Amino acid sequence: MDKVLAIVGPTGIGKTKLSIQCAKRWHGQVISADSMQVYQKMDIGTAKVTPKEQQGIPHYLVDAQSYDQPYNVKIFQDKCRQAIANIKQAHCLPIICGGTGLYLKAALYDYVFEEEQDDPVYTKYLHTLTNEELVQQLKQVDPKSLEKIHPHNRKRLIRALQICHSGETKSSREAKQEHVPLYDVYFLGLDMDREQLHQRIDQRVDQMFDAGLVKEVTTLFSDPKTWEYTSFQGIGYKEFRAYFQKEMTLDQVKEKIKTDSRRYAKRQYTWFKHQMDVHWFQPDDPKIIPHVEAWLQEGK
Length: 300
Prior knowledge:
Elements: E1 3-8, H1 15-26, E2 28-32, H2 51-54, E3 59-60, H3 73-89, E4 93-97, H4 101-108, H5 120-126, H6 131-141, H7 154-165, H8 170-175, E5 184-190, H9 194-211, H10 213-221, H11 241-244, H12 250-275, E6 278-281, H13 288-297
């Protein structure tokens, strides 16, 4: 199987810096597995890797999608797998860098997203139901799917019912898939003391505001019509809705972004520690190089 290096971990821990170092050392090219850095014009709030930081290393799926267009895990899966093929064709090492766990798993494992023929009449009907009514409907047709869907996650409840309506339940479809890696993947995870990580996250948010985050968000999203964009749902952007509605001050928005970022980091740790076989290191651990070297030599 083709080798793929995946650098994972929580927001703000230093994945980007390490991905560049690895690319330079092992003749690699980088694929961003960040669900927000893919959007054009959204640079500050996503902590997007800059051309200077890229140091001439080719990057895929950065600035690749218009911010007013939807982006999802299926699109990422297709584009990421194509990028891996292109990088291998260039005789380089694919290095995936990012913290969006579901995106990584969808691209690197045998996840299959089948196209459903959406029934607009049925979908319109589902949108008239309350969350409780959606849960009751799903209990009748696919109760097993509720083990993985929170009763308040309206979007996923509707999606599961749409899948059932197309002829097959969501849970039975997933059960057919083995969820095995399609590549020889080395998951390199970055970890550090939680208090230290929280300080880094807070500092980074302060730097975003100093760099002009308020102007960036106002330019892109001050119109209420834009609040439904997928791109606006990201941390660092969605918190400004209350500011636009004059319900929060900028200082309150800043604190909310810090809080949401810290909580997101905790969820990222939980995901990676339960979903993937990750090799964890401190960001500057000298053992990273020999461990990756040993993996690269395996099978040669």
